[in-house]
Amino acid sequence: MNAQQSPLLWWQKDIIYQVYPRSFQDSNADGIGDLEGIRRRVGYLRSLGINAIWLSPIYASPMADFGYDISDYTGIHPLFGNMNDFDRLIAEVHDAGMKLILDLVPNHTSDQHPWFIESRSSRDNPKRNWYLWYDARPDGSVPNNWLSAFGGSAWEWDETTQQYYYHAFLKEQPDLNWRNPEVQEAMLNVMRFWLDRGVDGFRVDVMWHMIKDQQLRDNPVNPGYLPHMPTCDQVLPVYSTDQPEVHELVQKMRQLLDTYHERMMIGEIYLPINKLVMYYGAGNNGAHLPFNFMLLSLPWDARQIAASIDEYEGALPARAWPNWVLGNHDQPRVTSRVGLQQARVAAMMLLTLRGTPTIYYGDEIGMRDVPIPFEEVQDPQGLNMPDKNLSRDPARTPMQWDNSVNAGFTTARPWLRLAADYSRINVQRQEQDPYSMLHLYKRLIKLRQQSPALYGGNYIPVHADTQALAYIRKAEDAPSFMIILNLSHRPCYFKAWQQPCKGRIILATSPELEGTQVADAVNLAGDEGIIIELEP
Ligand code: NOJ
After folding, report:
1. Are residues 274 and 187 in the same domain?
2. Residue nearest to atom 2 of ligand 1 (CA)
3. The domain containing residue 515 runs over which residues?
4. Is residue 85 situated within a structural domain?
5. pLDDT over 90 for what percent of the chain?
6. Mean pLDDT within 128-151
7. What's the confidence (pLDDT) of residue 62?
């Protein structure tokens, strides 16, 4: 719970913004966003006030999983541009005082990657052991019961070489064999390539998948499986993910990063808190920020959220730095999960909790999940399990910039349809409206960045009941704040019984409240959040 004493590094103080490149800005009228488009929007990102941009994959790829199936780790997909575009973008991002974080996908390649093409060519190919090849069981069936996240068995039969290979995702995404030192070295070389080009860090895809049980034991059946769940949840992935050896791999990646100046690594990890925090590494030699996804799945309930924040704060190892996420390209958007009014409260929570916040593009204008007709669904997760409503397309639609054709995203037909209401919900319009979500985000970002208590101070839990959540952020020699969030639609009365709560409201979801003096009790309207600057 204590803030650390040493000066904070950029990835601790800064706010990260995730760009999904296909959907941010098209510059060459092909209906798909690209690097040059992102470059043209650097000014916008600067005006928003964020300091680090994470790009989802921009590499060469057959796009079976929209870039998470890489066929060349050091090449740019022509849809996104070329290496000159990349160099230009990174230079401009750096000139604007911001950082650039790339996606790294070490768990699997595309089946079109030269490594896999070689590996599958014969059993004695030198790259055979770069992937996970196993014999069929005596009856010809798959080696074990492991399931693919995108439906069906995780094993694919290869006619030519008469063995199965393992793929945790699509069959077009074979998993690499991380027990092979050559694979490890090859991926570290990929990291070196981009670090030498100046990238400031990586978001590491499915970090907890990277190594699997060597004995290939069957996963246990999940007794809690319900029909609406993805089919892979029929078993509990105890042998196919989160193996003890993964931490040695993460440590190797970290050691490499530490040979460069202030580079960082975020781990994509969907695990319960006690297992998640292991990814910081013993003695902080693991991921700098194992993504904390709890706000994506917790019921929107003040007591449950308060308890989980405490659990997280309590589980963090010494010197481990927390982080918070409200959305990403795999999850329904926050506005669709909790509603537009509560999304404002959620923004206040994200930007006042202790730890690095990551904002998903478009959340800052309250973009909602866009209904995509079945004939237009592109996401393999949606296509493979059509009865379960699992498509991730609704949260990946083009950024809504203005009320011109296609919201200013493209002059061509966009790769994914836009929200029908983009002429009302867009950046240009919200820039002119002081009550907009965009203004709220900008003001929260600014306040966070100029307040040591918010970017670096302690977290002190104050209160949680059926409606409100309250906490204090406190720093030495700088103003402290009490944040009170009404997570319900009904008015609530809040009295600080334990902590003095004397001060002035400096930021509120309803700006009318700003400037109001608070003694020790406040009445909040439904969906209201306030930040009180406490009297010293
Ligand atoms: C996690 C990524 O975020 C997701 O989009 C992708 O489908 C899987 N990893 C497989 O790479």
Report:
1. yes
2. 205
3. 458-534
4. yes
5. 96
6. 98
7. 98
